[in-house]
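User: ok so my PI wants both of these folded by tonight, can you help

Assistant: No problem, let's get them done. Here's the first:
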Amino acid sequence: MPPKQIDDLLTKVTRYNLIRDGRMLYIDIHEAIRGSLAAPFVAVPNLINIIAQTQYQGTGHTEAQALEDCLQKIESIPFEDIFPQKTAADKTP
């Protein structure tokens, strides 16, 4: 592999789609290749360019554990509540 910068994090990603009530979000499972994550595997719900709030991300020692942890955390949460909300300050150019 090519040399990395000191703070680089490289992950291998597996993607899942969760469809609920006709709406879809992605759940990306990150496995650390270089650098370290909160756990060996981290499951991150996302809308491609919007990442879920940390409390809805799952962790585990295996891909299956991280996915299950994430799914339990978002089980009864509406999709719009999983992602950070824009504030008035975010909307100003």
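One down. Here's the second:
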Amino acid sequence: MDTVAPTADNRRTWTIVSDDNCPVVRFLSRLVKSCDSHEFFRFVGKENNDEHSRKLFRELSASPWSLLLIDDHGQRLQGPEAIPFILKNLPSGRLACVAYLIPGTMWLTQQLYLSVSRNRKQLAKLRVSSSQQTEPGQAA
């Protein structure tokens, strides 16, 4: 079981492994990064080239989800189950966690998240297709 080293001041830390090829996942990762003022999270995506990161990304690739959260003790949460743990460590995120107390919220989150996770490869292709523009005078 892989673990994440605790910080020098002994605060709890997490590693977020995400499929950053997917535009939805990439947007949400950027959002979490910008809100993570206390730097509770370490982010691992395809751009990380060390062996430990590649191993974590392979683990994520074998999962139906596009998110893997690992705490400093090696505990793992995947997909929507990780969201409340991420939110509670962001400014005002605790307020958003309250939504998970409403019956059915986790089920709805799981359905939406699974849809994005299942289609993340197609979503990544949309990004490439939309960036390819035709020359003036060329047929589309």
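Strands lie at 14-18, 41-44, 67-71, 76-78. Residues 8 and 40 are 12 Å apart (CA to CA). Good luck tonight!
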